[in-house]
Design goal:
By secondary structure, the chain is an alpha/beta fold. It contains 15 helices and 14 strands. The strands form 3 sheets. It has a 7-stranded mixed beta sheet with strand order 4-10-9-8-7-5-6, sandwiched between helices. A hairpin with a 2-residue loop joins strand 1 and strand 2. Helix 14 crosses helix 15. The mean pLDDT is about 95. Bound molecules: pyridoxal-5'-phosphate (PLP). Pyridoxal-5'-phosphate binds next to helix 6.
Amino acid sequence: MAANTDNVKKDIESRYIERTSKSQKYYTEARKYLPGGETRESTFFKPHPLYMERGKGSKLYDYDGNEYIDFVGNYTTLIHGHCDPDVTRAVATQLELGTVLAAPDPSQTELGKLIVDRLPSADLVRFTNSGTEATHWAIRAARAFTKRDMFLKMDGGYNGSHDAVEINIIPDLNPQELPEPKIAGLGIPQSVLNDIALSYYGDLDSAEAQLKKHRGKIAAVILEPMLGSLGMIIPTKEYLQEMRELTKKYDTLLIFDEVMTFRLGAGGLQEHFGVTPDITALGKVIGGGFPVGGFAGRQDIMDMFEYDPVDPESVNHSGTFNGNNMTMVAGVATLKKFDKKAVKYTNGLGNKLRVGIDETFKSLRMKGQATGFGSLVQIHFTDNELKNAYDYVMGILPNMEVQKLFHLELLNRGIFTAKRGFFATCTPMTESEIDTCLEEVKETLEVLKPLVNYPEGNR
Ligand SMILES: Cc1ncc(COP(=O)(O)O)c(C=O)c1O
């Protein structure tokens, strides 16, 4: 088996290296100036990352001229694909007028209105420059409003990369009654652990135990209405409804991190599930391909941001590029045409892909599955039930090498996916591109079938 693994690995890697020689050259040069040759962990992979020259619609082209169907969409951001004509026109016009004018612009109001009109929890919204900033400010808003410091986060939940939320990004691998809090890595102060409580995604008991234990101290509970980065695991409606009830019962706020999931419904996943949080963190699609974030919420909470330097009850929120003109006009052009019909279309493509992957596993007599919701799809090399981040990690741990090879082999076949095995659809994508993707996934799985290790209890 080991020799077979080595041969498959060598074959996939050598074909990748052969067809991407320019990327290899750029990467070698980059390492002289950038540690690891990159500034973004998610786009780096071995033997070298791909250097993309351009994108158009649902397609990407690398510097060697290879064409890919883009299922990454800049990590779920580019809902209209690359160079959408309406977005490009809006941005080109703005470029001639100035990129950021250190003054509010009607485009900021317009994007605000587009969000407030469709997002159930949003009475008012403010803009930031990333999803990381969005969750930072959502938590700051909750802390300011409740005058409390602690918050409850999900074990294995990813809410951006600021210190306060870089805790248990990898879930506790020895789960007990409550998750053991652990900072994600070097450079994050241990002191952030003073203000955190953790519960398991999908599990009401651990959430209630924490809310009870820290009664009167927790400013908010933050969670995604689908566990995105760790498995694209969709919760039950009852779980989200109960979390809403629990936060009311224990007199704390509920924050939904919809940075990734806003694209899944016209009013985000909160509208789909009919559960309205107090605050919502936003990002990705609302910036039309430009750096963006936002936090929106109840009037009484958001009113604190009507800043008055002599009012101790108000909160100062600044940022050199907050609400910058380029992002605002791109966001307006994007959301205007990301209407209910477009949501239905992109979700339909994702559903087709998810069903197709499930069928492919069955037809190959492999144990595997695709999870997610609508336009976001995640592949797993186990058919165990996946309820939380721990289940996801248990499925992936025996197959780290398979996952890497799956990614690389799909690149060899012109399918650009995230290295962690997710697929995002977009409006310019066609049904026939989904069929092509499914064919390539099938052939790739056939090659990798002998290498897959099923986790315990999955044989
Ligand atoms: C759920 C969630 N929250 C926050 C973030 C952070 O967003 P950004 O990368 O724009 O800082 C991400 C990014 O992937 C995310 O998926």
